[in-house]
Each structure stands twice: as C-alpha cells, then as structure tokens.
Amino acid sequence: MDLEWKYSEExxxxxxxxxxxxxxxxxxxxxxxxxxxxGASMFKCFVYGDGKLVAVGxxxxxxxxxxxxxxVAVHPEVQGSGLGRAVVSKLVELSDGHKKIVLYSYxxxxxxxxxLGFMRMSTAMAIFQDQEQALNWGLVNGT
Length: 143
Fold this sequence. Notes:
29% of the residues lie in helices and 23% in strands. By secondary structure, it is α+β, with helices and mostly antiparallel strands. The longest helix is centred in the middle third of the chain and has 12 residues, at 83-94. The chain starts with a strand and ends in a 7-residue tail after the last helix.
C-alpha cells in the first residue's frame, strides 16, 4: 500500500474522517464537531493508503509550553502495521520544543505509549462531559 501523508485538512472529506473514528473504534464523532476540533489544532496528520484515509491524529498546542496529542485513529484493516506508532511519533516530532507533550490513553493501551517515551502521570485530573461514562470506561477512577 502506497502511503501519502498530509498535514492540512484542506482536501479532507469530513464524513470519511467521521467514519474512520466510528470503525477504529473511537466512538461517534460528527463531521461538524471534527471540523471544529481539527481547525483548533496546531498539528494534524492524515495518512492515506491508496487514496483512502487510513490513519489520523492531531495535537492541540500553544507553541511553547504544552502540546496535547489526541484523536489518534487507525483503520481496522491496517491496525498493527505501525501506522499508529508513526502518527504519534510524527505528532511528537511536530511538537518538539514544547516543555511537555501529554496525552491520555484508554485503559490497556498504556504500554503502547510507554514504548514511545511517554510516562504515567501521577497528578493528572480530568472533568468529562459524561463523567459516568468516563468512570465506566476506566478513564477516571473517581477517587
């Protein structure tokens, strides 16, 4: 598969991106919400394989202090191929110069990020729009 990397959403099909998140599976993310989120992100990676969107990721960053990596998704047909690692690595590279690069991981995925140099934070806190769901998914522990 020939891969093409893009770093702008100019030609992006927002419905295709929404579908990628659904099947990855990272949940239902509507095209208009994704357009707003990616528009506010300093760094973006879109990977196309044979013309089809197969991997994506973004980072919210301020240019000096903090870069937050989020929404990394890989099409199920190519999961396990190293594309997720490549997207995270590229976002880390793009975030170079920031004092800290952070992300949060779904439970069970921590070892993947540890291999890429991330370390567990002992002081991270979060407020989710749906706190009950975050508790059920193990994203927060409620203590």
